[in-house]
Structures are given as C-alpha cells and as structure tokens.
Design goal:
Shape: globular
Helix content: 25-40%
Structural class: alpha/beta
Number of domains: 2
Number of helices: 11
CATH superfamily of the largest domain: Ribonuclease Z/Hydroxyacylglutathione hydrolase-like
Strand content: 15-25%
CATH architecture of the largest domain: 4-Layer Sandwich
Distance between the termini: 29 Å
CATH class of the largest domain: Alpha Beta
Strand order of the largest sheet: 6-5-4-3-2-1-15-16-17
Number of strands: 17
Largest sheet: 9 strands, mixed
C-alpha cells in the first residue's frame, strides 16, 4: 500500500491504472447478483432498466448512470371480469394493493435514494389504462378529493414526481379532444399535482435528445443519450431534431399509434421502447396505420427491445422492424392470454427476420386457466406450439432487470421474484456484450 501511495504521489500512471483495475474487480465481485439472494444495489455508472410485473400492464423503472431516475408508464389495466375468467394474469405480487401502489413500492426499494427518493422523470407512452391506469368501480378518491386513484395517480401518493412528459400536453386534442372519464381524471390529477406538488409537465417532443437528460453528473457520462423517436405519428428523420408526420392530414389514428417511442444509448449499449405502436396496417385503411417501419428506420439496431403492444397477435413485430432492430434480447410485458400471438413469436424466432442468437424474457406465462383461452384464440395446434416455445424462453416469469455495467460494454438480464417483497434474484443471464462494443 505504501508503494502504491508513493507511486500516486509521484504521478505514476501505471499505479493509477493498477489501483483502478483492482477497484473494478472488487466492485464486480461484491456486486455480482446471485440466485436466491437479494439483488445487489445499483452503483454509480450502472444503468438499470427494471421491467416491473404487476400482471396489469406496462411499467419500467430506469436508474441512469448518474442516479437520475425515470419511470416509463404506470399501467393498471386491471380487468376484473377477465381476471375472474383467467384470461388475464393474476395480479402480482397479489391483490392486497392496487397495481400503482405496487409500482410505487418497487420504485422505493430500487431507488438510489431509498423510500425518500423522487422520480426525476415520468414518461407516459399513451393514454390507455394498461399504461397510465384504468378506472373502475373500486377506484377510490384521492385524499385531496380532486381525482380518483389508479396507476400513475396511485404511485404519486407515495413517490414524488418532478417532471412528467406525455404525448398530449397541454391541449389534449389530438387526434380529437379528449373528454372521456379516464382522461378527465388524468387531467384533474395533473392539475392538482401542478398546484400542490410543483409537478412540471411537458409534451414529449419527437426528435429531441434534451428532454430526458442526466441531472446529477452529466459530465461524467458524455456517451449517454435518450433520443425521442416518435409521438402522435411524428417521427424523427435522423437529422437534427426534424420530424415527419406518418399520418395524412385529417386522418384519425388509433391511440396505440400515437404512442411515444425512444432509443436509449449508453456507450456501446442501446435499448428501444415504443409503447403500443402497430406493425400491421389496419384493415381497409392506408399503410400509414403501420408505425413500426417508420420508427425502425431511425432507431437502427439495438441490444434490448421491449416488444411493442405486449406482443398483440395481430399487429406487431413486422419482419422489416425486426430486420432493422435485430435485438439480442426481447422483453415482453405480458398480462393477457393473447400475448404474444403465434405469428408474432414465429417472426421473432425466425432467422429469416434477422440472423444470430436471441433470448426472450417474458414477465408472465402459464397461470391457471390461460391455456384454455389460448386454444379458443389460436386453436390446439398453434397453442401447443406456443406452449412449447414459451416454455423454452430464457425466462418467462418475474420482474426483468437489464443491468448494464459501467461504460456500457456488457450487460446482464436478472430475473427478480414477483411473488414476494422485496423479491430475491431468481436467475442471472449473461454477461452479454453490447453489439457496438470494441472492448476485448
């Protein structure tokens, strides 16, 4: 130790490199996830992407390399009739709390600042219950009385949100003025949060890379970026911040195709999320009703992709989209018997879509009663094929964590128990080398 310190005082670059190498090895050994043990905490320089499973929709919690935090969606599309019929997955970890409350508790456990940590950003991809929280007879009034609790509103009761971005702010009039119960409740929630908790709200702007930025130490991670790719049918062109509309003038698109999409880059690593964008034109409507191809052009290849629209059997993961993104890892947020559809999975698995290995991780799989609904949807032959293939997914149940090592050259996929709190590590996969890595 004395020789090392002397070398440091003498300005020896070799000694510095040796000490840094030893520290890196020590941190890697001490922070290695082990099945059956608690998840080691996030450390500075890591990128964590938690695909949270509540069994009711989409929610992903990001801890960025400098500790900035982001939540992408807070789905609570709990459909009581479909849960009772076992078409939908059972709620995870159980039904003693509402989904938004479970998401909030998960964020608090994984937040670098613990229970007191705030969310620096929330991005809501589009305005469906399985992404922002649906309303039902059991949705209670907020303590303030200004709106009802579900999804993102439930989460905000326990986790402060500093800035929220969505596709509609401030007018919420595209493609038509929103006056339904869900949107009126959501807007009342925003207004109360703005007036009472200093919430900032912005429109998610396609083409920009300065809306979702590192806030704590951006200078330490110059190779980190989140690029907004699409929203409301406007897609980044790949040049500056210019965009082009995929929708013809006067067209009325689906809510799904208005979804926001983004590409995250950290060193050699890249990740895509596109809400519920469609990859198949709607029947008797124009090609503009297919959004995946337009987004694929400007996204390019990625290491990890969240499958659009939960793997809906009729409209996602077209061959062109897959051939461009070529994900090494697919993550599927599953909550219904139809997810993923057999044709979708065939394209995902086929080397005619793109060459090379791939691993698939799903949040939910074979709950009691699901198979019977699959047979009704797809027939016995396709159901048997699906069951066999999904049984061979790399993992098919649990919270899915993408943990990227400092610098972005390697990453692991860690499955976390979704039936208990705090949830131990179930399995660890990798390390995978990021596709753009030049490290030996």
């Amino acid at each position: 130790m004395t020789a090392t310190l002397s070398a440091f005082r003498a300005g020896s670059s070799i000694a510095r490199l040796l000490v840094l190498a030893m520290l890196t090895v020590h941190r890697s050994a001490s922070s290695a996830p082990v099945p059956g043990k608690p998840l080691p905490s996030w450390e500075r320089g890591m990128l964590d992407i938690h695909q949270i499973n509540t069994g009711t929709g989409n929610a992903a919690f990001f801890v960025l390399p400098d500790g900035t935090t982001l939540l992408l969606d807070a789905g609570a599309g709990y459909r009581e009739d479909k849960v009772k019929s076992r078409y939908d997955a059972p709620q995870r970890p159980n039904a003693s709390r509402r989904p938004g409350q479970w998401i909030g508790r998960y964020v608090q456990r994984m937040h670098p600042d613990g229970d007191a940590g705030a969310l620096d950003y929330v991005v809501l991809t589009h305005f469906h219950g399985d992404h922002i929280g649906g309303l039902g007879p059991s949705s209670p009034q907020a303590p303030a009385g200004a709106y009802r609790l579900t999804g993102i509103a439930d989460l905000a009761e326990t986790v402060r949100i500093r800035k929220l971005l969505d596709r509609g702010w401030p007018r919420y009039d595209f493609p038509a003025r929103s006056g339904g119960e869900l949107m009126l409740n959501y807007r009342a929630f925003l207004q109360w949060q703005i007036e009472n908790r200093a919430l900032q709200v912005e429109a998610f702007a396609p083409g920009r890379s300065d809306q979702l930025v590192l806030l704590r130490a951006p200078q330490e991670f110059p190779d980190f970026e989140i690029r907004n790719l699409a929203a409301n049918g406007r897609v980044w062109t790949g040049s500056g911040t210019t965009t082009r509309s995929r929708f013809p003038a006067g067209a009325v698109p689906s809510e799904n195709n208005c979804s926001t999409a983004l590409r995250l880059s950290y060193g050699a690593f890249s990740y895509f999320s596109g809400g519920d964008l469609s990859g198949t034109p709607e029947t008797n409507r124009g090609a503009w009703t297919e959004m995946e191809s337009a987004v694929a052009w400007v996204c390019g290849p990625v290491d990890v992709a969240l499958l659009n629209h939960h793997g809906s059997p009729t409209d996602v993961a077209n061959a062109f989209f897959l051939s461009v993104l070529q994900p090494r890892i697919h993550v599927i947020s599953v909550y219904a018997a139809s997810q993923p559809g057999p044709d979708v999975l065939r394209r995902m698995l086929s080397e005619r879509s793109y060459p090379g290995p791939r691993d698939i991780f799903a949040t939910n799989w074979q709950w009691p009663g699901r198979r019977e609904h699959m047979v009704k949807l797809f027939g016995e032959t396709d159901t048997a094929w699906l069951v066999d293939r999904i049984n061979h997914f790399t993992a098919n149940q649990g919270h899915v964590l993408v943990r990227v090592e400092p610098g972005g050259n390697q990453y692991r996929i860690i499955i976390i128990d979704d039936q208990h709190e705090p949830g131990d590590v179930v399995s660890v996969h990798g390390p995978f080398t990021a596709r753009n890595s030049t490290a030996p």
